[in-house]
Amino acid sequence: MTGLNIPTQNLPDWRHVYSGKVRDLYEPDTDALGGPHPHGDVVLVVASDRVSAYDHVLSPGIPGKGKVLTQLSLWWFDQLDDVVGNHVVSTDMSSTPGDGLIPEEVHGRAMICRRLNMFPIECVVRGYLTGSGLVEYQQDGAVCGVYLPEGLEDGSRLEGPIFTPAAKAEVGEHDENITYSDVAQQVGLAAAELLRDHTITIYARAEEIARSRGVILADTKLEFGTDPATGEILLGDEVLTPDSSRFWDARQWRPGGAQPSFDKQFIRDWLTSPESGWDRASGAQPPLLPEHVITATQERYIEAYTRLTGQVIEL
Prior knowledge:
single chain, alpha+beta, Phosphorylase Kinase, domain 1, D-amino Acid Aminotransferase, Chain A, domain 1, 2 domains, 8-stranded antiparallel beta sheet, 5-stranded antiparallel beta sheet, 7 helices
């Protein structure tokens, strides 16, 4: 498998096979285990502290970010379990070599997951208009082929959530917004309907939960795959984290401009500010993140976790 050229850990019972912008993927080391993994066809998904923006992996990372992403995903998987199943098999820490559980050095930021045949679709759902959706709307009044009322502005709440999918791109390239018809052509009408319906239903549930905690879920990106053994469509990857979602403070929401957020929009804003000195169109690697940006981003991720779950996380 291919991916980014990023140094990874050597983990007992597991063999590294892939690195993405944020996550490292390992498969069971059958030699160390003395045979197949006890849980069958699984992978170890490890969330790193790396952070990406505008299709670049930035440096340095955000301390503790991997743990926040994993623990928040696990919390959301529990909230959504009656809506759609997910790929998580175990979060238990290894107690003895050869048991195939999660090594101590990555415990808390790793999940043993069922290996899925992932759909090549980013299932994006928007309840508010901002980001690339706003750009599309300003150009032709629609987002991914979904036409919206006139007069909307940055941060406007939509009449209802809309499914605005994107085609997955290779690491380092930008996902391309596509229409629902494009999805149906790629994966078939039956699968496209399920992906759309699951995505909208998950958003509705999550938006209600977040709002009850004073947080607006503006939009989010979900990924699904099929279980090779059963053919069931399951929720995979991460879910409803500050990496894959826009979370806004409900008390400060004011349509018409950028919203105070609990996600990595803070980093995007710094990168495109005069302070960074970076020209996004230059093709050059972004500059190192300064300490104040790292600290502020970490605080936003922790606040997202705390406000949504009502729990304290120790990094």
